[in-house]
Amino acid sequence: MSLVVSEVLCYLQNNFGKFPRGLLVTTVSGFYEEKEVSEAKSLLYSTVKKMDITSDDVPRYKKRQGEQKNRGDVEDIIGLFEYFDTKQLSLPVDFVAKNLQRLPALSLSDVDVYKLAESVKELGNQMRGLQEAVGSVVQAQVDGSAVRTTSTDSGLADKVVPETSMSTSCVNFAQLMKDQEVAEQWFKAKASTEAESKKRLIRKITGGKQNTTVKAVDSEWHLFVGRLTPDTTEDDVRGLLTAQNIKVVNCKLLPKKEEWQKNYSAFRVVIYSADKDNVFEADIWPFGADVRDWYFKSK
């Protein structure tokens, strides 16, 4: 299998399936220039074309234009990777990066932020749909309560006069709940009970006094430390932190299960919680090292 240099395809090939599709599209289209993404897309499609795949459902090359061209090209690249993953096919080449500084950083915390943003967006869409439904109900009630009156002293045509003074533009919740007649059709405000009004606020502090006769148990803090050179040892990491007066409870080299992981060393480091902020000083670590809180999967 041959190696082909392309930072864009290297990044997507190695992160596809590890992060949400939308997060990858946003990250790559925002990090790389339009020309880089376009060249990467052409390179990938030309590679696939040389494979002579007989199936007719291979995604076709789409010529994108407009303001969303960069994002659309990234979606096409990921779509092709998804096709190969679904069909259980393998590309004849591996894409590699010549300049590691041209690879954007993504962490599991970014996934949480992305999911939160997606949830907020979905909630906003649901609220807009509910608001439109409420507006339709209110409009129907206004139209149904209208009565016709005929002018007796003029030759004007019949006019429709609403029986209620509520405006037809009242379609938001703030205005809707101000109208007493309509509010009764929804719900009445629930009066708070005496017990609820007397709920006691639970206070909490973290002690900070030193040299006391009563001691507290110092909790541990777990870290992931990666992107170090392959020859880095556990003693090297211990010594690096000890020199900064940070006590290491445990340091363990993570196993290298994938072929690409052999190019780096990564560790699970356990320190005391008192140093959980000190350990995130950038000057402590070598340039390019990846240091972040350890991610625990929920059971």
H and E string: EHHHHEHEEHHHEHEEE
Helical/strand content category: alpha+beta
Radius of gyration: 31 Å
Number of helices: 9
The biggest beta sheet, please? 4 strands, antiparallel
Q: Helical proportion?
A: 25-40%
Report strand %: 5-15%
Low-confidence runs (pLDDT<50, min 5 residues)? 147-152, 156-171, 177-184
- Enumerate the strands of the largest sheet in spatial order, edge to edge or round the barrel: 6-7-5-8
Distance between the termini: 39 Å
- The count of β-strands is 8
Mean pLDDT: 78
Shape: flat
Provide structural commentary:
The structure is a single chain. This protein is of the alpha+beta class and 299 residues long. Helices cover 38% and strands 14% of the residues. The protein contains 9 helices and 8 strands. It has helices at 7-15, 21-31, 34-49, 69-87, 108-144, 173-178, 180-183, 194-197, 234-242; strands spanning 2-5, 93-96, 146-149, 159-162, 220-228, 248-253, 265-272, 290-293. The chain has a 4-stranded antiparallel β-sheet, with helices on one face. The chain has a two-stranded parallel sheet with strand order 1-2. The chain has a two-stranded antiparallel sheet with strand order 3-4. α2 (21-31) packs across α4. The radius of gyration is 31 Å and the shape is flat.
